[in-house]
Amino acid sequence: MPVYEYKCPDCGHRFDLLQPMDTERIADCDKCGAKSKRVFSSRIVVKYEGWGFDATDKLLPEASRSKRDFKQLKEKADQIMDGDYNPKSWE
């Protein structure tokens, strides 16, 4: 999901919201409550999945990186993404 930036026309406050792409382009300012329009922002949020990304690179020893190990790796990566990372539980 993309992060959208909004600017309040009344108080000038800028804020970000993580929203689906088809969400209405108007949101309530979290400071004063006025209707705020989405502004162009160059920031993006990306979720990488699969082998070769920093969060998952060293979860499996080099010798055990086979196709059957990818299921185990995906489970570990999902736990990391969900905030349930506990390396001691995988020893």
UniProtKB/TrEMBL annotation:
Residues 1-41 form the Putative regulatory protein FmdB zinc ribbon domain. Coiled coil: none annotated. Transmembrane segments: none annotated. SMART domains: CxxC_CXXC_SSSS. InterPro entries: Regulatory_FmdB_Zinc_ribbon. It holds the Pfam family Zn_ribbon_8. Gene3D superfamilies: RNA polymerase ii, chain L. This is Putative regulatory protein FmdB zinc ribbon domain-containing protein. It comes from Candidatus Solincola sediminis.
